[in-house]
Specification:
The chain is of the alpha/beta class. The chain has eight helices and nine strands. Strand 8, helix 6 and strand 9 form a beta-alpha-beta unit. Helix 6 packs across helix 8.
């Protein structure tokens, strides 16, 4: 748990990016996770002893650095820290914008959704486009379907009034064909995001296996989002 970095957004606001987990805890076991294959897969919120010290240090760092926004971007799924609500409350109490990066898996859980609703920005993800690739690449808990995953995010979006950002990871040979792009467009229409971020793998072995060249990424962007 730590303050990861400070940076300026395009709008000039100062952002403090933080990790609220002591190690990798996530709902998925994605084969392309930059943190590696190890870690704990869980949907349950857990108590971490280090959180108390982290909260105290975070309050001091906020007073010192005076950021405009708090970006919760953790080693896995931030909801797994059962004191995430206190982190959000701390940020809001300092009049900061609070942005929560999540893969969207747990947004169908009422308790987790209530925490997300307190944030100014919440994210979701699109990677797989069918159950086979979902199970193979993202490796969710047994019995969990891609349809249920998307449906949960859609239900959350229906009542969320903040900025809902969807990160779309495009992968060579997985979801860059016309049928897959059509599926992505349809899913985005259902999610009605405030903002879409299109990504691909740019580093290491994942780039070599699934990365899409920059010039083709622009063509795919136009196919998914149009020219506007």
């Amino acid at each position: 748990m730590k303050v990861k970095r400070l940076f300026r957004r395009e709008d000039g606001k100062k952002v403090m990016e933080i990790n609220v987990l002591p190690a990798k805890y996530c709902t998925f076991r994605c084969v392309f996770c930059p943190l590696g294959a190890q870690g704990t897969q869980t949907e349950e919120a857990l108590r971490f002893e280090a959180t108390e010290t982290f909260l105290q240090d975070l309050a001091r760092q906020i007073e010192k650095e005076e950021p405009d926004a708090l970006f919760i971007n953790s080693m896995g799924e931030a909801f797994i820290n059962d004191r995430l609500g206190e982190v959000i409350t701390l940020g809001k109490g300092k009049d900061l914008e609070v942005s929560l990066y999540t893969n969207g898996y747990l947004l169908g859980n009422p308790g987790y959704a209530a925490l997300a609703h307190k944030c100014d920005e919440v994210s979701g993800e699109i990677k797989a486009i069918d159950d086979a690739s979902f199970r193979k690449l993202q490796r969710p808990p047994a019995g969990y379907s891609l349809k249920e995953y998307i449906d949960r995010m859609v239900r959350f979006r229906e009542t969320y009034r903040g900025t809902f950002t969807v990160y779309v990871t495009l992968m060579k040979g997985i979801n860059d064909d016309p049928q897959s792009l059509q599926s992505i467009r349809y899913t985005l229409e259902r999610l009605a995001p405030s903002r879409v971020v299109l990504e691909t793998f740019t580093d290491g072995k994942f780039r070599d296996v699934w990365g899409i060249p920059e010039d083709k990424m622009e063509d795919l962007r136009k196919s998914i989002q149009g020219d506007h």
